[in-house]
Design goal:
Largest sheet: 6 strands, antiparallel
Strand order of the largest sheet: 1-2-3-4-6-5
Low-confidence stretches: none
Radius of gyration: 24 Å
Number of domains: 2
Structural class: alpha+beta
Mean pLDDT: 90
Helix content: 40-55%
Shape: elongated
CATH class of the largest domain: Alpha Beta
CATH topology of the largest domain: Trna Endonuclease, Chain: A, domain 1
Number of helices: 8
Order of helices and strands: HEEEEHHEEHHEEEHEHEH
Amino acid sequence: MMTISEIEKDFRQKVADKVTLHPEGVDRFRVFTPFLFEDGDHLAIVIRREDSHWALSDEGHTYMHLTYDIDEKDLQRGTRQKVITKALSIFNIEDRQGEMVLPVKGKRYGDALYDFVQALLRVADVTYLSRETVRSTFMEDFRAFLEETVHESRRAFDWFDHQHDPDGKYVIDCRVNGMPKPLYLFGLPSDDKARDVMITLLQHERWGLSFRSIAIFEDQEEINRKVLARFSDICEKQFSSLGANRDRIKRFITESMGS
């Protein structure tokens, strides 16, 4: 087995000249690299002995870093989960309940660190997904949230009125039933979706249907002001985003269902 000085030398040869190791207890060393998250924070990496071998670990820091901007539950489902799972699979990284670990095989210390750094950076990329992918993720998050909040016997996704709209042209993202006035819930990631929802709500009004409407924006500040102004005249209740308002939205829905 290589000595720590030999491991550090291999790290520098295979990864970067500025890699250094600093001891933190018995058979445990902090690995300092020049690699950063997008916000300027350094990747958190340690190398430690596990039984007869060494292993690299982020000790849960990467997930914790992501939760500064993304709800922890949203990292465990949908598009974000797929991105993370793929990144870990490519580099054979183990996910130990949020801790990313890569056992070093043989004497391939430098190669292991290179792979580990690449994996952490790819995982961190879920914060900077393309606009189209983020839009898809928002609707997945929206649906997952409602699945957690409303029992399946009280909700119907992609609902439409079969009597007035047999072709399903005016679809409700989620209809919550069991009250004199059902709840119509919509996820709004864009101006286009806001316009579509306005048309749907107006059409349901024309049919004389009784309902209450709730809109949850991905980011209300991104919606065109004129579109938002017209939308506000039509939709009864709005929330500016999902992530920061989960408790408020859940309380509002629960109280509405109870009434």
